[in-house]
């Protein structure tokens, strides 16, 4: 065994057997913002063998305060987060196999991932995607580790099919549902504690230390110096659509997928193309040239200005519109430009 993992090997609960299990493990990290950066770096350093990372966004200067994988250069180049992350993670541990997905996480991608990973790490910023993760994880019988943080607080819970209530059961009682980092901001320690706690649970899971797992909803506030462990076994709903006996996994139904999203921390709206509609970067370049305004093309997107709005069209046909929060306006602008 090489010296890279010597301190982790000395930790008896992991040891050589646990390290081998980590090397054989495959995980998915959904989202590569603040939590995703911290989780990816920790688990890449720990020697998890294969990691899938999905994110739809690019690096901005306002990310760097808490998104530890990214640099000023990444922001200047507007690199997609998964591209910048891959570069950095490879330089930390070149033996880890990385797969990245620059796209919106939809029912197809989440099921693809759930079918081939040992655990899904939640690093998203919205409840819609978490419901998607929850349905896919319970359908494919794999654990997923919830993490959410805002301000100086965070919430962590390892969801486990056949053992714990699911996210859908807990939804009505989870704290910090109505606050986002858009409205109350966030400090980096809250991110680090949340991600570190998620990673501790992942290490227990992946090394077979099941008895050490904390099956309580853990809530902390590192400014007000409080923490809370909430037992949730009684919250499991018999007729739950995800973890009940006759589960239907409604979030995996294509028709349930929203075509729009307001992006957390962005002051931006994302519009997806209608099913079957394909807008390519070439189309976008041609169409936006006619606008006779600012336009630039990178390998990943076409950025352009229309009226007062700055927009980016990505390779998968997604349009990111900056400076608005109104979903209907987003849809109208998309149709006006791309039909
Ligand atoms: Zn449930």
What does this structure look like?
The protein is of the alpha/beta class. It has two domains: 3-252, Rossmann fold; 259-338, TATA-Binding Protein, CATH 3.30.310.10. The chain has twelve helices and 14 strands. It has helices at residues 6-10, 15-24, 34-46, 72-76, 81-92, 107-114, 127-139, 167-170, 181-184, 188-206, 281-289, 327-338; strands spanning 26-30, 50-55, 97-102, 119-122, 144-150, 153-159, 217-221, 226-230, 260-263, 268-271, 295-297, 301-306, 309-314, 319-322. It has an eight-stranded mixed sheet with strand order 3-2-1-4-5-6-7-8, with helices on both faces. Strand 13 (309-314) and strand 14 (319-322) form a beta hairpin. Helix 3 (34-46) crosses helix 10. The radius of gyration is 20 Å and the shape is globular. The model has no long low-confidence stretch (mean pLDDT 92). Zinc ion (ZN) binds at residues 165-166, 168-169, 237, 240, 242-243.
Notable features of this structure?
339 residues; alpha/beta; Rossmann fold; TATA-Binding Protein; 2 domains; eight-stranded mixed sheet; six-stranded antiparallel sheet; 12 helices; binds zinc ion
Which small-molecule species are bound to the chains here?
zinc ion
Number of strands: 14
Task: Give a quick account of the main beta sheet: strands, pairing sense, barrel closure.
Answer: 8 strands, mixed
Q: What's the level 1 CATH class of the largest domain?
A: Alpha Beta
- Gyration radius, in Å: 20 Å
